[in-house]
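Troubleshooting log. The previous structure file for this entry was overwritten by mistake, so regenerating from the original sequence record. Sequence copied from the archived sheet and checked twice against the printout by T.R.
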Amino acid sequence: MNLLLHMCCGPCSCYPVKRLREEGIEPTGYFFNPNIHPYKEWERRLEAAKEFAEKSGMEIHTDENYQLREFLGRALPAEKEPNGRCRMCYTWRLEQAARFAAEKGFDAFTSTLFYSIYQQHELMKETAAFFAEKYHIDFYYEDFRPGWQEGIDISKELELYRQPYCGCIFSEEERYSRALRKQRKAEAKA
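Regenerated output below.
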């Protein structure tokens, strides 16, 4: 199978690539992540994805356009809806992966997003399946979460840059703002 693997970053690619290779699939990486901010963080993750691809001997394609304004133009209105920002982000990235895979003649596509224990898998699966149908390409789903710790261990062995938050400026705020964490806990208890 000629599989395009959308890569959110280098560390999150470690286990999925290992697992796919165990299944006899040699993936080709694809970095498209306009959600990552600020610029220096986006640049570090792009470089970590390239570094992982080099160290693992995997071919990679990268979209090296930093898209802060377009991301904010999509994210701010989406913030008004439940799960709106994440839904918008999954939609943008998975559609681009499906489109790229179809245009470049891949048999199927998937994403390292399915490795994260923090992402909304059912929403991502529905989104990817929708775009697979739209672009007439197969969506390869595998739940890579069982390899969470193994992926972390591999990324440390490879000395890859490991990011401390999901990627967007909202997730950065959620990670570092004590006031916001306190507010979220209170909302969860209510």
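The beta strands are 3-7, 28-31, 60-62, 108-111, 138-139. Archived copy saved in two places this time.
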